[in-house]
Amino acid sequence: MEHNPHSFFNLYHGTIQGHINEILKTKQFIFKSRNDHWLGNGVYFFVDDINKAIWWSEMATRRFNKTQEDRGILFIEGYKIKREKLLDLDSEKDREKMTNFWKNNQKTVRMNLTSKDEEQRKIEARAKLINVLVDYHKMSAVKYTFHKDHVNKMSFLENLDLSNNEIQFCIVDTDSINFKKVRDITQEVI
């Protein structure tokens, strides 16, 4: 018998209230495929970081020309996933899996990168490779900790080798979401 544990994550999704209402009504997340999603195509969440979700909801109000009153936060308590269905890029094992997949398939995976900007090309290449790998292995989600520059008020943490991180979680297979665990917490936190 193979050891295949489940992992559990508390996930926060920042968006606008209209989207939250639609998600809760239809019991489904709908996402648009793009070639520059950081972790491939899917619905994005922050792991255990409500402040990042609030920040993202503020960004969404600007993008959709809404007011601050239109901000919204969804919470999934204890999203459950089998370890084999998660591409955890914080794990050496899964980074090795991605490297080996690329080595074995680089002649057949067409990148077709469109951006002229070098940084954007890296994001596109990462997203493309993740999309193909996740599809090939029939995975449900991708997780990675991105390191960000410190804002001035926290720059002293760099001297202690504590980086400013955000753990992003991208759910590719939205059918894996148990909607009994999804709730609108906007009024509680904003």
Key traits:
7 strands; 5 helices; about 190 residues; single chain; alpha+beta
Provide structural commentary.
The chain is α+β, with helices and mostly antiparallel strands. The chain has one domain. Helix content is 33%, strand content 26%. The chain contains 5 helices and 7 strands, in the order βαβαββααβββα. The protein has a 7-stranded mixed sheet. The termini are far apart. The relative contact order is 0.23. The model has no long low-confidence stretch (mean pLDDT 92).
Question: Compute the gyration radius: what is it?
Answer: 18 Å
What is the H/E order?
EHEHEEHHEEEH
Total number of distinct structural domains: 1
- How many helix segments? 5
Give the biggest sheet: 7 strands, mixed
End-to-end distance: 47 Å
Structural class: alpha+beta
Strands, total number: 7
Mean pLDDT: 92
What proportion strand?
25-35%
Q: Numbering strands along the chain, what is their spatial order in the largest sheet?
A: 4-5-6-2-1-3-7
Uncertain spans, ≥5 residues at pLDDT below 50?
none
Task: Note the overall shape.
Answer: globular
> What proportion of the residues is helical, as a percent range?
25-40%
List the topology elements:
Layout: E1 6-16, H1 17-26, E2 43-47, H2 50-63, E3 71-82, E4 86-88, H3 92-105, H4 118-137, E5 141-148, E6 164-171, E7 182-184, H5 186-189
Parallel strand pairs: 4-5
Antiparallel strand pairs: 1-2, 1-3, 2-6, 3-7, 5-6
